[in-house]
Structures are given as C-alpha cells and as structure tokens.
Amino acid sequence: METVEEITVGKVITCKAAVAWEPKGKFIVQDVQVDPPLAMEVRIKVTHTSLCRSDLFFWTNEALGHTFPRIFGHEAAGIVESVGEGIDDLKPGDHVLPVFTGECKECKYCASPKTNLCSKFGTESLATGMKGDGKSRFSVNGKPVSRFLGSTFSEYTVVEYPYVVKINPVAPLDKVCLLGCGVTAGIGAVRRIAQLEPGATIAVFGLGTVGLSVVKEAQRRGASRIIGVDININKAAEGNFFGVTDFFNPDNLDKPVEEVIKELTGGGVDYAFECVGNPKVMATAFASCQDGWGTTIVLGVAGPATVSIPTRSLLTGRCMKGTLYGGYKPKTDVPALVEQYLHKDFDVEEFITHNLPFSRINDAFKLLQAGECLRTVLHYNETVN
C-alpha cells in the first residue's frame, strides 16, 4: 500500500504541477508550492488523474472569464497527506476521491433524497479559482495560482472536506479515479435519473466516456434499442463495442436525425441522453423522444445558453431533466459505488484507452481534442509508456 511522508505535514510542499498560464496555452509542468491545509481542508497526494472534457471546455473557453495562471483537473484519486483542524474521520494514508460537487449533510438539499445538490458546497463555489478566504493554496515563486475544482493536475492539492470521499483502500486508484466524474455521471443518469426499465429504447447523443457509460449501463439494464449519435464516424465501432444497436452520424443523413430516430422507433425513444453540452443538440435530443412520456436527460456541460423547445411537446407529456454527477451524493453514495465496482457489478477499465506519465499531459490533451481517446489516465509516480 502506498504511504505518505509524515515529514511534510504542516509544511509548504514543492511539487510538480501542470500550470495553464493562459487560455488554450500549453500546459507547463513546473514546480509549484502547495500550502498546508487550513481548518476543514485536506491536502491530498494525487496518484492518478484522468482528463475530462470539462477541463478542456474551461481551459479553451475564454468567454468564461477564468483567471490565469490556473491548475486544472478534477477526475482523480489519491492519498490523504494531512488534514486541517476540525476533521476527525479522515487521516493521513486514507485513500480518497476528490469530487467536484460537495455534500455538507446539513442543508435542505443534502437532506432531500430528490437531489444531490448542496447549497453550501456546490460547483459554483469552486469556479472563482480561490478558496473561501479569497486566497489560493497554490503559488509559483510567490505568485498565486488559481485552482479549478480539485486542481488535480498537481502532485499535491488542497481540497475542502465536503469534496473529499474516503474509499476502500483495496480499490485500484488508477481505475477508480474515473468515478470522480464521467463514468459515475453516466451510470447515475441511467440508474437514478431515468430509472430505466427493461425493454426501454434510448438515444445517446455524444459517445465519449459519459455517453458510452450511459450506453453500457442501459445495456446492463436491458434496454431493447440503444441508438448512438455522434459526428465522429470512428464512434460507430466503439459504440458497437459498448452496446449501441444503431449508429447515426447526423452529417451523413439526408434528413434531421430526430426524424430518422422517430421513423426507426415508431414515434421516438423513451429516453434521450445529451452528453455533448450543446443547446442545439439538447433540442434535437428532446425532439427525438416519444410523445406522452419521452424524457430527455442532459449531462453535457455547456456555457451560458438557452435551449429552445416547443411548449406543445411539454403539454403532451415530454420532459427534460438535467443531472449533475448522475444524481449521486458524493459522501453518501460514492463509497458504495466503489464497492460495486470491486464486486464487478460494472467495469471502468474499458473506458481507459491510454495510460501516460504525468509529464506527457500535453500529449494527453491532443488525444482528447482529436477525439482519439476515451479516458487517458496520467500517472504521477509510475513508469508507463
């Protein structure tokens, strides 16, 4: 079992991190200084981090107004190095997942079984790039470096306690890091949001990791038809591997894809999952659903935009739902999800297409931008090709 060095507790740690100094700029792997955790904070030694399209979206989208320099990354796993005052159920050496949405277990959202939102520790509180005290725990030669969610593109990171999930130390960190975001979002969208029944028909728009995790879970739950939609023609074979029964590239059709789906299914699918984060695709997914009960579930991350859907379709029974992290409450539900993985109730290995040393993070982003990977896992302390 991996361990942490007790001699670092209470001290500033200098370690390697990938710093983005400007939007779309090359990630610079360099020394950064990471402060000790303050009250109700946890400093984590990140062992593995994977790349998510949310990192790509916020790194390249200048219109969002994020401050730079910044350390991105949020889908990861690691080991507690030290904890701040007030934390009594985490200790150095514990294996954890840093997650992007928190759970205080006290607010009305956390008390409700209807949502996994938290009014005190949502994703919005992490978007500013600074901690609640207006400061960063990262710096380069005295210059503050903004964070992004868990900032796991750093060998060490500091995360607030509500965003840290303790997991079974038996779980392989290079695999369960994927449960920090994408795979969990897809599984939960099928299980918790759709509550998909055997025999249901679905359409999945966007066959990345999130979309394919929807496909795989729908197959496990006995969906009768799984339609995959993607403009990357290479996704046809990949989708088939995961359980897609019919694949369409909208760019290659002579009519709108929603019309094709309605003709194929005799009126539309029972569930449509939007995994792209594009308002136009959301509207298309909605139009692909069956009148009377068709449900569109939005998983894709989009910037500030408006979705346009006809009100008549709402009056005739269709609906659209959004979901964050698949509806799972991080501290309450995710440890059990890790146990399900350990009992082989589902796989995550099939979503890992590349393993690279952390120093090759720029190569990993090129794969992601080119659509040539699902998840690339970056390893901090292991030799990988």
UniProtKB/TrEMBL annotation:
Metal-binding: present as a keyword of the record? yes
Cofactor(s) listed:
Zn(2+)
Keyword field: Metal-binding, NAD, Oxidoreductase, Zinc
Q: Which GO terms describe its cellular component?
A: cytosol
> Known InterPro entries for this protein?
ADH-like_C (IPR013149), ADH-like_N (IPR013154), ADH_Zn_CS (IPR002328), GroES-like_sf (IPR011032), NAD(P)-bd_dom_sf (IPR036291)
Its domain of life reads Eukaryota
**Example of a GO MF term:** alcohol dehydrogenase (NAD+) activity
Reply yes or no: does the keyword Metal-binding apply: yes
GO biological process terms on file: formaldehyde catabolic process
Q: Which residues form the Alcohol dehydrogenase-like N-terminal domain?
A: 41-168
Q: Which Pfam families does the annotation name?
A: ADH_N (PF08240), ADH_zinc_N (PF00107)
**Sequence ranges assigned to domain Alcohol dehydrogenase-like C-terminal in this UniProt record:** 210-338
- PROSITE patterns assigned: ADH_ZINC (PS00059)
Of which family is this protein a member? Belongs to the zinc-containing alcohol dehydrogenase family. Class-III subfamily.
Q: What is this protein called?
A: Enoyl reductase (ER) domain-containing protein
Species for this entry: Physcomitrium patens (Spreading-leaved earth moss)
> Gene for this protein?
LOC112290508
